[in-house]
Protein backbone atom coordinates (compact mmCIF):
# COMPACT_ATOMS: atom_id res chain seq x y z
CA UNK A 1 0.00 0.00 0.00
CA UNK A 2 1.49 3.40 -0.97
CA UNK A 3 2.22 5.93 1.71
CA UNK A 4 1.33 9.63 1.66
CA UNK A 5 3.31 12.84 1.78
CA UNK A 6 1.69 13.67 5.13
CA UNK A 7 2.76 10.28 6.53
CA UNK A 8 6.33 10.85 5.34
CA UNK A 9 6.35 14.32 6.93
CA UNK A 10 5.30 12.73 10.24
CA UNK A 11 7.89 9.95 9.91
CA UNK A 12 10.53 10.64 7.26
CA UNK A 13 12.68 7.66 8.30
CA UNK A 14 11.70 5.52 5.25
CA UNK A 15 13.40 8.16 3.08
CA UNK A 16 16.60 8.57 5.10
CA UNK A 17 19.86 6.98 3.97
CA UNK A 18 23.56 7.63 3.74
CA UNK A 19 25.30 7.92 0.38
CA UNK A 20 28.97 8.42 -0.43
CA UNK A 21 29.85 10.88 -3.14
CA UNK A 22 33.42 11.70 -4.11
CA UNK A 23 34.64 10.22 -0.82
CA UNK A 24 32.20 12.21 1.35
CA UNK A 25 29.32 10.73 3.31
CA UNK A 26 26.04 12.58 2.83
CA UNK A 27 22.65 12.03 4.41
CA UNK A 28 19.68 11.96 2.06
CA UNK A 29 16.39 12.68 3.80
CA UNK A 30 13.19 14.66 3.58
CA UNK A 31 13.39 18.43 3.92
CA UNK A 32 12.71 19.35 7.56
CA UNK A 33 11.41 22.55 9.19
CA UNK A 34 14.85 23.03 10.75
CA UNK A 35 16.42 23.27 7.26
CA UNK A 36 15.19 26.78 6.47
CA UNK A 37 18.51 28.59 7.02
CA UNK A 38 20.45 25.93 5.11
CA UNK A 39 17.87 26.06 2.30
CA UNK A 40 18.20 29.85 2.01
CA UNK A 41 22.00 29.42 1.81
CA UNK A 42 21.65 26.65 -0.80
CA UNK A 43 19.38 28.76 -2.99
CA UNK A 44 21.52 31.89 -2.54
CA UNK A 45 24.63 29.92 -3.51
CA UNK A 46 23.31 28.79 -6.89
CA UNK A 47 25.08 30.32 -9.87
CA UNK A 48 23.12 32.33 -12.42
CA UNK A 49 23.14 29.28 -14.72
CA UNK A 50 21.84 26.93 -12.03
CA UNK A 51 19.18 29.44 -11.04
CA UNK A 52 18.04 29.83 -14.64
CA UNK A 53 17.73 26.08 -15.12
CA UNK A 54 16.13 25.26 -11.78
CA UNK A 55 15.23 27.86 -9.17
CA UNK A 56 13.51 30.72 -10.89
CA UNK A 57 13.04 34.29 -9.72
CA UNK A 58 11.47 33.96 -6.26
CA UNK A 59 13.71 35.58 -3.60
CA UNK A 60 15.69 32.91 -1.73
CA UNK A 61 14.31 33.55 1.76
CA UNK A 62 10.74 33.68 0.45
CA UNK A 63 11.16 30.44 -1.53
CA UNK A 64 12.72 28.66 1.45
CA UNK A 65 9.97 29.84 3.83
CA UNK A 66 7.31 28.66 1.36
CA UNK A 67 8.94 25.25 0.99
CA UNK A 68 9.25 24.80 4.75
CA UNK A 69 5.66 25.93 5.35
CA UNK A 70 4.20 23.28 3.02
CA UNK A 71 6.12 20.28 4.37
CA UNK A 72 3.65 17.41 4.60
CA UNK A 73 0.92 19.30 2.80
CA UNK A 74 -0.24 19.60 -0.77
CA UNK A 75 1.55 17.59 -3.44
CA UNK A 76 5.24 18.25 -2.72
CA UNK A 77 8.01 16.14 -1.29
CA UNK A 78 11.52 17.50 -1.24
CA UNK A 79 14.55 15.35 -0.57
CA UNK A 80 17.82 16.94 0.48
CA UNK A 81 21.40 15.72 0.48
CA UNK A 82 23.07 17.06 3.62
CA UNK A 83 26.81 17.57 4.07
CA UNK A 84 27.21 18.40 7.76
CA UNK A 85 24.86 21.37 8.10
CA UNK A 86 24.95 22.37 4.42
CA UNK A 87 22.58 21.26 1.69
CA UNK A 88 24.51 19.80 -1.24
CA UNK A 89 21.46 18.98 -3.32
CA UNK A 90 17.66 19.11 -3.44
CA UNK A 91 15.23 16.87 -5.30
CA UNK A 92 11.82 18.43 -5.86
CA UNK A 93 9.08 15.81 -6.28
CA UNK A 94 5.47 16.63 -7.03
CA UNK A 95 2.46 14.36 -7.22
CA UNK A 96 0.23 16.83 -9.04
CA UNK A 97 -0.08 17.30 -12.77
CA UNK A 98 -1.78 20.64 -13.28
CA UNK A 99 -3.90 20.89 -16.40
CA UNK A 100 -2.27 23.01 -19.06
CA UNK A 101 1.26 21.94 -18.17
CA UNK A 102 2.70 18.40 -18.30
CA UNK A 103 -0.65 16.71 -19.07
CA UNK A 104 -1.26 19.02 -22.02
CA UNK A 105 2.33 18.97 -23.30
CA UNK A 106 2.61 15.18 -23.18
CA UNK A 107 -0.81 14.72 -24.78
CA UNK A 108 0.60 16.77 -27.66
CA UNK A 109 3.23 14.04 -28.02
CA UNK A 110 0.58 11.30 -27.95
CA UNK A 111 1.34 10.28 -24.34
CA UNK A 112 -1.44 10.08 -21.76
CA UNK A 113 -0.10 10.76 -18.26
CA UNK A 114 -2.15 9.13 -15.52
CA UNK A 115 -2.16 11.60 -12.59
CA UNK A 116 -2.46 8.70 -10.14
CA UNK A 117 0.74 7.07 -11.43
CA UNK A 118 2.93 10.03 -12.45
CA UNK A 119 5.35 12.13 -10.41
CA UNK A 120 7.22 15.24 -11.47
CA UNK A 121 10.96 15.29 -10.75
CA UNK A 122 13.30 18.28 -10.47
CA UNK A 123 16.81 17.79 -9.05
CA UNK A 124 19.33 20.53 -8.29
CA UNK A 125 22.89 20.17 -7.07
CA UNK A 126 24.88 22.96 -5.42
CA UNK A 127 27.49 24.32 -7.80
CA UNK A 128 30.35 23.03 -5.61
CA UNK A 129 28.94 19.49 -5.95
CA UNK A 130 28.30 19.53 -9.70
CA UNK A 131 30.34 17.05 -11.71
CA UNK A 132 31.16 14.95 -8.64
CA UNK A 133 28.42 12.30 -8.93
CA UNK A 134 25.86 13.68 -6.48
CA UNK A 135 23.06 13.95 -9.04
CA UNK A 136 23.66 10.32 -10.03
CA UNK A 137 23.62 9.25 -6.36
CA UNK A 138 20.29 11.04 -5.78
CA UNK A 139 18.46 9.00 -8.44
CA UNK A 140 17.97 5.83 -6.35
CA UNK A 141 16.59 7.67 -3.28
CA UNK A 142 14.28 9.71 -5.52
CA UNK A 143 12.98 6.60 -7.32
CA UNK A 144 12.46 4.86 -3.97
CA UNK A 145 10.44 7.84 -2.70
CA UNK A 146 8.35 7.92 -5.88
CA UNK A 147 7.64 4.19 -5.63
CA UNK A 148 6.82 4.53 -1.93
CA UNK A 149 4.19 7.09 -2.94
CA UNK A 150 2.67 4.58 -5.39
CA UNK A 151 3.93 6.16 -8.62
CA UNK A 152 5.76 4.47 -11.48
CA UNK A 153 6.08 7.16 -14.16
CA UNK A 154 8.39 10.16 -13.87
CA UNK A 155 8.39 13.34 -15.94
CA UNK A 156 10.66 16.32 -15.62
CA UNK A 157 9.21 19.15 -13.57
CA UNK A 158 8.54 21.80 -16.23
CA UNK A 159 10.69 19.98 -18.78
CA UNK A 160 14.37 20.58 -19.48
CA UNK A 161 15.76 23.62 -21.27
CA UNK A 162 16.75 22.88 -24.84
CA UNK A 163 20.16 24.48 -24.26
CA UNK A 164 20.92 22.43 -21.13
CA UNK A 165 22.92 19.69 -22.89
CA UNK A 166 24.51 18.49 -19.64
CA UNK A 167 21.11 17.84 -18.01
CA UNK A 168 19.77 16.18 -21.16
CA UNK A 169 22.72 13.73 -21.16
CA UNK A 170 22.16 13.08 -17.45
CA UNK A 171 18.47 12.29 -17.93
CA UNK A 172 19.11 10.02 -20.93
CA UNK A 173 21.78 8.18 -18.93
CA UNK A 174 19.11 7.49 -16.28
CA UNK A 175 16.56 6.06 -18.68
CA UNK A 176 14.57 9.13 -19.66
CA UNK A 177 13.27 9.24 -23.20
CA UNK A 178 12.95 12.52 -25.10
CA UNK A 179 9.47 13.06 -26.49
CA UNK A 180 9.65 16.72 -27.50
CA UNK A 181 11.79 19.81 -27.36
CA UNK A 182 11.68 20.03 -23.56
CA UNK A 183 9.89 16.87 -22.45
CA UNK A 184 11.48 13.65 -21.20
CA UNK A 185 9.88 10.83 -19.26
CA UNK A 186 10.55 7.35 -17.95
CA UNK A 187 8.82 4.40 -16.32
CA UNK A 188 10.28 3.04 -13.08
The 3D shape can be described as: globular
The tally of strands reads: 8
Number of helices: 7
User: Overall pLDDT, averaged?
Assistant: 93
CATH homologous superfamily placement: Gcn5-related N-acetyltransferase (GNAT)
Going across the major beta sheet, what is the strand order?
A: 1-2-3-4-5-6-8-7
Structural class: alpha+beta
Beta-strand residue fraction: 25-35%
**Weakly predicted, low-confidence segments:** none
> What is the radius of gyration computed over CA atoms, rounded to a whole number of angstroms?
16 Å
- The oligomeric state of the chains shown is single chain
User: End-to-end span in angstroms?
Assistant: 17 Å
From the 3D structure, determine the CATH topology.
Aminopeptidase
Could you give a short account of the major beta sheet? 8 strands, mixed
Summarize, please:
GO terms for molecular function: acyltransferase activity. It comes from Actinoplanes subglobosus. The chain has 188 residues and is of the alpha+beta class.
Features:
8 strands; eight-stranded mixed sheet; Aminopeptidase
Polypeptide structure, described:
- The structure is a single chain.
- The chain is an alpha+beta fold and 188 residues long.
- The chain has a single domain (5-187), classed as Aminopeptidase (3-Layer(aba) Sandwich).
- It contains 7 helices and 8 strands; from the N terminus they run H-E-E-H-H-H-E-E-H-E-H-E-H-E-E.
- The chain has helices at 5-10, 36-44, 48-55, 60-69, 102-107, 134-148, 165-173, and strands spanning 17-21, 24-30, 76-83, 86-94, 118-125, 153-156, 177-178, 184-187.
- Strands 1-2-3-4-5-6-8-7 form an 8-stranded mixed sheet, sandwiched between helices.
- Helix 6 (134-148) links the parallel strand 5 and strand 6 (153-156).
- Helix 2 runs antiparallel to helix 4.
- The radius of gyration is 16 Å and the shape is globular.
- The relative contact order is 0.16.
Amino acid sequence: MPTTIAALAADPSPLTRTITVDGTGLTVRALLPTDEIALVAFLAGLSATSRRFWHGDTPDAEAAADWIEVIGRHDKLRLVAVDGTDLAGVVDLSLSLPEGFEITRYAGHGIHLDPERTARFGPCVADAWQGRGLADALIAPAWDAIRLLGRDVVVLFGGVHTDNARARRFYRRHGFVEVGDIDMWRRL
